[in-house]
Amino acid sequence: MDYILTSLGNALGMIIHLNREVLNAVGTSLYTSLTAIVLASLSGVPCGAAVGLLRFPGRRVVLTLLNTLMALPTVVVGLVLFGLFSRQGPLGPLGLLFTPWAMIVGQVVLSAPIVANYTVAAVAGADPRILPTAQTLGAGRLRGTWQLLLEVRFGVMAAIVAGFGRVIAEVGVAMMLGGNIRGYTRTMTTAIALETSKGEFAFGLALGIVLLSVALFVNLFLHLLQQR
Predict the structure, then answer these.
(1) Among positive and negative, which fits the CA dihedral 170, 174, 175, 176?
(2) Tens digits of per-residue pLDDT, 158-210?
(3) pLDDT by residue (tens digit) across 58-91?
(4) Is residue 146 exposed (0-12), middle (13-18) or buried (19+ Cβ within 10 Å)?
(5) Within 13 Å, how many C-alpha atoms sit on residue 43's CB side?
(6) Overall domain count for the chain
(7) What is the Cα–Cα distance from 30 to 22, expressed in whole angstroms?
(8) Is residue 212 part of a domain?
(9) Domain-embedded: residue 208
(10) Using CB atoms within 10 A of its CB, is residue 10 exposed (0-12), middle (13-18) or buried (19+)?
(11) Are residues 108 and 93 in contact, defined by beta-carbon separation less than 8 angstroms?
(12) pLDDT at residue 224 tops 90
């Protein structure tokens, strides 16, 4: 018990004194995760809205595919993208492997299906009269869809938060595509895994506290918006 309390005290000291290694890992995590969730939202929300509103052949197949991709193992994504980005791979000349952008691409692949699937659920649960009413008032299809998304904005925001939660706590893709390079691609999760294995429990605990704080802040933010 003394070991845990001592480590907790050291961890809090690192956070309070803004330990440089902690700040680097936090900064890299936030940069890659926020960039990835923005890109995933730009693709996932329109895709989810289209699947939720339109009726077309193969729609059930698309829904099944989205459900499957939600549970896609991170190491599988990392393995496939590693092959694409490696020097011998088709995208090797881009030089993305072991860079933050390689991690961002992997995180987009992981989070976009989540955003799309939750958006489908939000759109499907909306009042079916919203879109016809908007079109009756003169709105086009695109404008009516936008109005519908505004009506279900909290569901869409929950989708984005769920996607962000997936990528901020992700390890496999960050480790395989980023290489866990100190001060460059080392994130909170990869640093926790590395430093804990080296016996630096206090350092890992400090990052764990920050990671939990970020998750708590995001969920509190969503809750406050829903109260308005």
Answers:
(1) positive
(2) 899 999 989 998 888 999 999 989 889 999 999 998 888 888 888 889 999 99
(3) 888 988 888 888 888 898 999 999 999 998 889 9
(4) middle
(5) 14
(6) 1
(7) 12
(8) no
(9) no
(10) middle
(11) no
(12) no
Single pTM value for the model: 0.90
Q: How far is residue 181's CA from residue 151's CA, in Å, rounded to a whole number?
A: 43
| Amino acid identity at 227 | Q
Asked if residue 168 belongs to a domain, the reply is: yes
The answer as to whether 126 is a domain residue is yes
Q: Check: CB of residue 28 under 8 Å from CB of residue 187.
A: yes
**Residue range(s) defining the domain that contains residue 117:** 26-188
Six-digit token string for 67: 């459900």
pLDDT in tens, 202-221: 888 999 999 999 888 887 87
CATH code, domain with 86: 1.10.3720.10
The answer to whether 37 touches 118, Cβ cutoff 8 Å, is no
Closest CA to 64 of 101, 113, 31: 113
